Amino acid sequence: MVLAWAFGHGGNPRMRVAMKAGPDRRMILIAGAAAGAGFVLGIAGCGRNAARRAASVDLNAWLAIATDGLITIRVNVSDLGQGAQTGLAQIVADELDADWTKVIVEMAPVTDGYFVHSKGYYTGGSGSICGEQFTRFAEAGATARAMLLATAAKRWSLRPRQCSTRDSIVTHMPTGRTYSYGELAADAARLPVPGNVALKPREARKLIGRSMARLDIPDKVNGCAIYGIDFKIAGMRVATLAQCPFFEGKLADVDEGPALAIKGVEKVIKLNNAVAVVARNFFSAKKGLDELNPQWVRPSNPITSDEAMLAALTANVGAADSKIVTPGNSDQDGALKRVAERFRSAHTIAEAEYRLPLLSHSPLEPMNATAQVTETACELWAPMQDQGSMRDDLAAALSLPKNSILLHTTKIGGGFGRRLNTDYGVLAAQVARAAREPVKLIWTREEDMTHDFYRPASLCRLRIALDSQLMIAAIEATGATTNDTAIGGLEANYDVDLVIRQKNTRFPLPVGAWRSVDASINTFVLESLVDEIAHGAGLDPLDYRRKLLAGKRRQLRVLDTAAQMAGWGHAPGGRFQGVAFFRNTHWDAVVAEIVELSVDTANKITLHRVCCAIDVGTAVNPDQVKAQAEGGINLGLSAALGEAITLKDGRVEQRNFDTYSILRLRSAPLIDVQVLESPDAPVGGAGEPPVPPAAAALANALFAATGKRIRTLPLSHSGYTV
Asked: Which of 29, 221, 388, 642: CA 20 to 30 A from 317?
């Protein structure tokens, strides 16, 4: 089986373990006081082979320079295949005027001073490079460059402006004298950290905006990359586990004997809601687990079926205690009144109901972690997206202080939001503590799929008020979701008055972030109904969106670029096109996608191609933006075509890829991506924005081909295949 989307393998195995546990003066000045405790060792950084490193000094919290010129850039995000670590290194190296061939990357300590956007030490929300992150890393490079210039100028009895920098060398052009950064670093580190250092003008950039080769790729190609599932330490045992199949249920009891009789099995560990088998290798552990017959305590109110879940969602649509959201969350009463008035005076009201299922993350690398726990400390090696929460949750679960938790981020074989949760690390630590030896806990694919934190199931009734010109005057979305309020993704597309009413319907069911989160739900809803309005009025769907976006230069450029790429309206015979548009102010990105497909008499869909135009403001590494768009589009198409988690008798029915249908490579379309830039716009995110338009563009193309309007996903539930 070959999977169609990029699963997001991150990082590089170059190990660097000589990392300080606490902040120094420059960390405090540059990154803010490090109020948190605990730290991470940077085994998931990336860069060239630097096994023999010269002594280095910190010029600020984010970078160090060695006497041989090697530049170490510390980053606060994991690399899940999105290339974020390379992108951040480009930002620093550009402002530093560094020799790119001497740059390596390592993970920064897990302390508050390194938090992303002041929210935590995590990788998600398309926030690795955009906004504050871009500025933070650019300033780190510019500050260090100023210190190096000042040091060289002082040695020559010159002013810094009389010197220049390039490729890690400071030069006095009139005399030709030079110093390498390695020669200057020690003295530069003794200088006060300057404030308010000016960043380069856009036209002076040499690395930002270039498609630099990712630093992590060579080791993934040559097999050196170490993912969590590969990691080994001396004396380590391997474990696997079975958790209660009923969410919020518990382990009643289990007879350990059958597992202990298997050669290689050493221990059976009973936990509150799981049983783990510890052995000398995974094969023995799995064989031992298969011999067990654990008895489970069901929760008092399990979800009996998908039908019961849908009935509960339906009953909660429009509930009095629904969360009400209006754009900007300001003057809510005024927004409610305006929307009500728009509907009272509407020329026409369009409305439809949409249903979307629970979705699994299904990363290629299932959940795993290696832990070593003593009475006073815990050390964990794992593919993590949220190191800050992992530190805090381990400390709480083990009743240890945070500064006794030592984290190592390994390479990551896919995340999509799943590894923002910490259950896999906490369970590994609990098993290791009970086993009294280092343990690598590996979940089976079945365990991974049946104990996910799923994208919420959602039911939404969308109403759109149209004026006499059939332009959108107001939008009202009323819905219910499982254990969540899916409120994002509607507010920015067309800048109209909007009210969202969403009811969080409580189920004993874990839900969590799934790549693009609510936008993957709500963009399908909105762009499907917008398309339906256009067709109902006899208007071209692309031209109708142009009218809705009148006066919005950036949005129109993206939409028109996608149309030009696709040859909108001129698809080859037997092929049909569908368009969807997405803009999100949180991610500061604009995306338009056009799907071209054909459908045979047996309802088999052939995906011929997808054309995507994307504007993220500044594309630090355009090839990485393209790769994110390609992966996101395939993920969105896969979910729309065949993915669904269903429930029966209080448990998940799907256990592996034979019953959870994801898009295969043989069915994936050709994807063309054009990256646009808006220099005056904020630096935006690229990881999640390409996902939301995919499902709607697909369904809209299917309508163009068949005349059938699909309002329930996946399409396989309506009889379509690929």
From this structure: 642
Fold of 25-219: Aldehyde Oxidoreductase; domain 4 (3.30.365)
Locate 566 and state its tokens.
């696709």
Q: Where would I find the H helices in 261-329?
A: 282-290, 306-316
Q: How many CB atoms lie within 10 A of CB 47?
A: 24
Length of the chain counted residue by residue: 722
Q: Residue 49: exposed, middle, or buried by beta-carbon count in 10 A (0-12, 13-18, 19+)?
A: exposed
CA-based nearest residue to 348, from 495, 525, 529, 582: 529
Residue 174, C-beta contacts closer than 8 angstroms, at least 6 positions apart: none
Joined tokens for residue 235? 């004396």
User: CATH 3.30.365.10 in the chain, residues?
Assistant: 25-219, 228-299+367-442, 311-357+455-718
**Token code pair at residue 539:** 């208007």
Fold assignment, 311-357+455-718: Aldehyde Oxidoreductase; domain 4 (3.30.365)
Q: pLDDT-based confidence at 48, cuts 50/70/90?
A: low
Residue 70 clears pLDDT 90, i.e. is over it = yes
Q: What's the pLDDT at 279?
A: 98
* Overall pTM surpassing 0.70 (yes/no): yes
- Please identify, in words, the CATH class of the domain defined by 228-299+367-442: alpha beta
What single-letter amino acid sits at 477? A
CA–CA gap between residue 50 and residue 37 (Å, rounded): 28
